[in-house]
Amino acid sequence: MPSISKLGDRLIAQVVLVLCVFSFSSCTIVPDEEESADKGEKLDIYFVSDDFKPDEFAQSIWEDKVVPFFKDKSLPIETIIPVWLNDQQTAGEKFGYREKEEGSPWNFRVKGSGIVTAVNTESRASTVDIDLLPNDGKADLVLQIGPVIKDSAIRDSLDFISFTDFTNQLEFARLSNAFNKVVNKDVTSKLDRENLMGKKISFWGAFTQLQDSELIRVTPVILEVE
Predict the structure, then answer these.
(1) CATH superfamily, region 54-225
(2) pLDDT bucket at 28, cuts 50 / 70 / 90
(3) What does pTM read for this prediction?
(4) Which of 61, 69, 73, 106 is placed for a possible disulfide with 96 were both Cys, Cβ 3.0 to 4.6 Å?
């Protein structure tokens, strides 16, 4: 029969083994620098830098570049929707824009006019349903009115801004958020939300192929309420 001391030694060894396994599973393995160099690999670790100020950049080009760009490049959304509902890829090839050819979502610069048939303000990501002219009594799209603006449709519709212009993916992501902040500040925050129902709205804006709603969700760059 094993002695008490031997049983104690075994118990200690088992505890140490469990702790080692737990510690190993909780760690992130970083490739050895010399080995990575031999293989031609590069390990990049990015930190957010204060050198790039996305909010200032987005605001500085909004009126002079972004708004005129959408006024000039937007297509009638009523032309796009039937093709989109039938085949998103075909709609993208005919009407959309994306910086990379494969694997990237299509983005669409659009304009249109319609009547507000519903005001959805239950969450901070508020929207209004739009029945495009000529009206048929059914909503054709939703228009984001914030204050929370989803997706990166504005950034990804601008052909004069490229991912390669930025140091890393974090800066590019921050720029999308900055554009959405401008939309909320300069475009949607001025709306009289309590009196939107039944109003006619004209808009210029963008939507992306990455939709999580039944209707196309448009982010406005310009809004006119009558």
Answers:
(1) Envelope glycoprotein gp160, DUF2291, alpha/beta domain (2.40.50.420)
(2) very low
(3) 0.76
(4) 106
